[in-house]
Automatic annotation (TrEMBL):
<dbReference type="InterPro" id="IPR007197">
    <property type="entry name" value="rSAM"/>
</dbReference>
<comment type="similarity">
    <text>Belongs to the radical SAM superfamily. Anaerobic sulfatase-maturating enzyme family.</text>
</comment>
<dbReference type="GO" id="GO:0051536">
    <property type="term" value="F:iron-sulfur cluster binding"/>
</dbReference>
<keyword id="KW-0411">Iron-sulfur</keyword>
<feature type="domain" description="Radical SAM core">
    <location>
        <begin position="1"/>
        <end position="240"/>
    </location>
</feature>
<dbReference type="InterPro" id="IPR023867">
    <property type="entry name" value="Sulphatase_maturase_rSAM"/>
</dbReference>
<protein>
    <submittedName>
        <fullName>Radical SAM protein</fullName>
    </submittedName>
</protein>
<dbReference type="GO" id="GO:0046872">
    <property type="term" value="F:metal ion binding"/>
</dbReference>
<keyword id="KW-0408">Iron</keyword>
<dbReference type="Pfam" id="PF04055">
    <property type="entry name" value="Radical_SAM"/>
</dbReference>
<keyword id="KW-0949">S-adenosyl-L-methionine</keyword>
<dbReference type="InterPro" id="IPR058240">
    <property type="entry name" value="rSAM_sf"/>
</dbReference>
<keyword id="KW-0479">Metal-binding</keyword>
<dbReference type="InterPro" id="IPR013785">
    <property type="entry name" value="Aldolase_TIM"/>
</dbReference>
Length: 474
């Protein structure tokens, strides 16, 4: 979960593909809009009593908030969450154009990590200020703003502040191979300097931003090419490729778009707005459809955070990987269900949050390529896909911090000419769960299986502490 202060949803840029832009146009959000710092602080105190997560600032352009108020928010977070002692950080997501030396000093003082929103070098950013038409003057401003953002990244690289980059993928920076190559070159330079980042594909909301977003087929090409780019050098690390590796290894499901999410009250995002009200994830704008900004309600006291209805439906509704049935927008039978869960509801196909994500083909292809590569490098590796379909293994590893010991079946040795070798041991999926028994009691594991499978399909071996469901049950 992330907790954000979004003091003012206005922004000094006007990126035409930004997920907040439809709401800005609807609400006429203004960069001069007032906010009430006392109300924001009151809401933060309420969040603190309820959640453990360290809040940060995200939404609109947070550097439009006056410096004294930024200092008040960050110093309160620093003290209240004991960041120094616990080694944790707070964060800010900014376009970087308003960054000053004073900000950098403040971020160093209060352990603030910085996420910069930037979509590549030079003209790959040209839609960061595009309006309906871009005349010469606006292009000038765009170029200057991009230079400021790139300068901000350089400044932060020189400081003690942790910095990462969010790249929104659009036709402008990834629509052709030539553009993608330039983007990858830029990312290479960042990663050489220990600056990692993450792709977010721009979501084409209904009747809005359609012409700027990548098609699902193009996103698939971009993901696969980027995975090859990432594999080529050990210093390169970029999301979502790294997240997918982790997900398959059962390490965590940290990214909300690979996990369950209630579109009406996203458990992954709790927002304090400038008047002290609360709301949830801004990406749900598309689902409203009636011009009201977002479907999200008060996110402080809602007991429906963990609703699973969409996911119960998705796993029963036929999709592209269901044998002998037509695709009806679901995920039934998909090999990667347990680490994908149908994706973000705001990107549901046909603008319907109940359907699986429009990015399905790209996600599936990337998981498949990563799985093949990991298995060929480490024969015998145990991955989440070795568990029975819909076994909640990835979820459990995330919630309970369980290590499923993916390398437990491997034997490392040397060949006769002295070269290191890796051999796979017996690969028996039945004991995948039992590997985790240090953290989960065996009875708990069995209970989980009984909840999901009929007794006749289960084989329970108490002496080996193993349980599995036969393939007829899947
Ligand atoms: S890849 Fe994801 S969205 Fe596509 S069918 Fe599988 S679980 Fe559903
Ligand atoms: S709506 Fe999408 S982006 Fe927002 S919290 Fe849910 S999964 Fe994440």
């Amino acid at each position: 979960m992330t907790i954000h202060v979004s003091a003012n949803s206005g922004c000094n840029l006007g990126c035409s593909y930004c997920y907040e832009e439809p709401d800005r146009q609807h609400s006429q959000a203004d960069i001069d809009a007032e906010y009430d710092i006392e109300e924001i602080m009151a809401r933060l105190r309420q969040f603190e009593a309820k959640y453990d997560e360290v809040p940060g600032m995200h939404g609109g352009e947070p550097l439009l908030v006056r410096d004294e108020h930024l200092e008040r928010i960050f110093s309160w977070i620093y003290e209240t969450y004991d960041l120094e002692e616990t080694g944790r950080h707070t964060h800010i997501q900014t376009n970087g154009t308003l960054l000053t030396e004073e900000h950098v000093e403040m971020f160093e003082r209060y352990r603030v990590s910085v996420g910069i929103s930037c979509d590549g070098p030079a003209d790959l950013n040209d839609n960061r200020l595009a309006r309906s038409e871009m005349d010469g003057e606006l292009r000038d401003v765009t170029e200057r703003m991009t230079e400021r953002t790139l300068d901000a990244i350089d400044t932060l690289k020189e400081s003690d502040v942790g910095v990462g980059v969010i790249v929104v993928l659009t036709k402008q920076n990834a629509g052709t191979d030539e553009r993608l190559d330039r983007l990858l070159e830029w990312m290479d330079d960042l990663t050489r300097h220990d600056v990692g980042g993450h792709y977010n594909p721009a979501i084409p909301y209904e009747d809005v931003q359609e012409d700027e977003s990548l098609s699902p087929e193009r996103l698939k090409e971009v993901y696969l090419r980027t995975w090859e780019w990432m594999k080529a050098e050990p210093y390169r690390h970029w999301g979502p490729m790294g997240d997918y590796q982790d997900n398959l290894l059962g390490n965590k499901l940290s990214n909300c778009v690979n996990n369950t999410c209630d579109v009406f009250n996203a458990g992954a995002a709790k927002i304090a707005t400038g008047d002290g009200a609360t709301t949830g994830c801004g990406k749900t704008w598309a689902a409203a459809g009636d011009g009201n900004a977002f479907l999200q309600g008060d996110s402080t006291g809602n007991e429906y955070n963990d609703t699973e209805e969409r996911y119960e439906m998705l796993k029963q509704v036929p999709g592209p990987h269901t044998d002998d049935e037509d695709d009806h927008g679901g995920c039934k039978g998909c090999r990667y269900w347990n680490v994908c869960q149908g994706g973000c509801p705001s990107a549901g196909i046909e603008y319907d949050y109940r359907n699986r994500t429009r990015w399905c083909a790209a996600k599936y292809a990337l998981y498949e390529r990563i799985e093949d590569d990991m298995r060929s490098m480490f024969p015998g590796l145990r991955l989440v896909t070795d568990a029975p379909w819909d076994a909640p293994l990835a979820e459990e590893t995330s919630r309970r911090n369980v290590d499923i010991k993916p390398f437990a079946g491997l034997h490392f040795g040397q060949s006769s000419n002295g070269k290191p070798t890796v051999r796979g041991g017996a690969h028996d999926e039945s004991d995948v769960w039992s590997l985790a028994h240090d953290s989960l009691s065996f009875d708990e594991v069995v209970e989980q299986y009984r909840d999901r499978y009929d007794e006749e399909h289960l084989t329970i071996d108490r002496s080996r502490q193993s349980v599995h469901a036969d393939s007829d049950s899947q």
